[in-house]
Each structure stands twice: as structure tokens, then as C-alpha cells.
Amino acid sequence: MRKYAFAIITLFLSFSAFSQVKIGLKVSPNFSWNNVIHDNDSLSLSGNGLKIRGGAGVMIDLMLSDNFAVATGLSYMTKGSGIRFNSAGTEIRNKYSLQYLEIPVTIKVYTNEIMDYTRLYFQVGVSANTNIAAKINDENVFTDSNGETQNMTKNINFLETALLVGSGIEMEMGESTVLVAGLTYSRGLLNIDNTGLFDSPNKLTNNYVGIDLGLKF
User: Fold this and answer.
1) How does 93-132 read in b/e, with b if 16+ C-beta sit within 10 Å?
2) φ and ψ at residue 13, rounded to 5 degrees
3) HSE of 166 in the Cβ direction (CA atoms, 13 Å)?
4) What is the distance between the alpha carbons of residues 79 and 56, in angstroms, rounded to a whole number?
5) Averaged in consecutive runs of 10 residues, what is the pLDDT profile of the chain (217 residues)?
6) Are 32 and 208 in contact (CB under 8 A)?
7) Which residues contact 199 (CB under 8 A, 6 or more apart)?
8) pTM, two decimal places
9) What's 2-216's CATH class?
10) 201 preceded by cis ω (within 30°)?
């Protein structure tokens, strides 16, 4: 995580030397699900549907021109829905609640004003995410098939990366205040499971669609 943070700081300092910096705060409720790729004839695994999660964070836009920016920041996000096991006609549902710190890096493009003081934006990029806590069925620990107690956080990989695609609207509310409302789709790229159940080519990933509501100053 340190090398990601150092890269973000370096990028920020490089761009800020010749760009206008906009900083803001946001809240981000999201609809989260886990995508399952698992090829096993004796055990059927699938995602556990959608769960409503949420988060909040700091937005940083490095304005390179009126219509172009590099967007980054730092967010605390909760996500994950869990997985369903189906073996010999018996189904077991495990609910996940996963907590991450996310550092996005995206390219953000603005339209010209679609009405007075109002513009649309579109963005695409990636995020580097660090797992800081995890629960299964609202518990920090669980008992595995061998009767041993396992820490759920240790069974989730520490690092995750995701593809980000988003769009929204920004409205100037005054000389230096901007209202932001948008949607972000986050698609996990790396396997988050650290138990061996989803060893390659199997994969368990996080995905969500977030509603971003915030103010920039």
C-alpha cells in the first residue's frame, strides 16, 4: 500500500504544479455483489445477490483544463455480499461485509455547460484498494470444516484492484462551491479469496454500483 500512496503523492505534486486543484467530500451508498468463477462438478458456488453498502471519502480533482482533469482521492468503502454453496441439494449462504480503503486514479472529462453553471462529466480509471476488516455472517471469526477458528480478515487478500467507470453532473452553487452527483461502477480485477477455495483459474471478486453525492471547494 505504501508504494501506491507514494505514487499518488508524486502524481499529485507533479500535476498540481500546473493545474488547479479542487478538493471535496462525498458519501457513496452502493449496491454491492460478489462475482464467482468456480469450476467444480461436486460443488456449485454463486454470488449471494445484492447488498446495500456505503462509504465516504475525499475527492481531489487536478484540473488540467476546463474540460479535462485527473481525479484521485481516498475513500473508506464497505462492500461484499457473500457466496452461496450448493452441494448434494443442500444450500448454505455466507454473507460478507468487507471494509476497504480505496485510492482511485481516473481520467475525468467534462462537457461544456448543458445549462447555466451545470456540466456533465465522464470518467474512467482504476483503483488500488486495501482490505482493513472483514466479517462473515456479522462475525469476525468462523469455524472451518476442520473445526478450527479462522479470522475472516486474514481470509481476504490484503490488496485489490478494480476498474472504475463513472458519470455524473456538477453544478456550481457559488463562487467556489460545486455540488456533485453521479454513479460509479467498480469491477474487481483480482481474486479477493485467501483460503485456496478460489485458486486460479477460479476467482472471487468485488463489484458495486455506487451513488456519489458530494461537495467540492
Assistant:
1) eebbbbbbbbbbbbebebeeeeeeeebebebebebbbebe
2) -65, -35
3) 32
4) 12
5) 59 57 96 92 87 97 95 97 86 95 98 96 98 96 83 96 98 92 98 92 96 96
6) yes
7) none
8) 0.88
9) mainly beta
10) yes
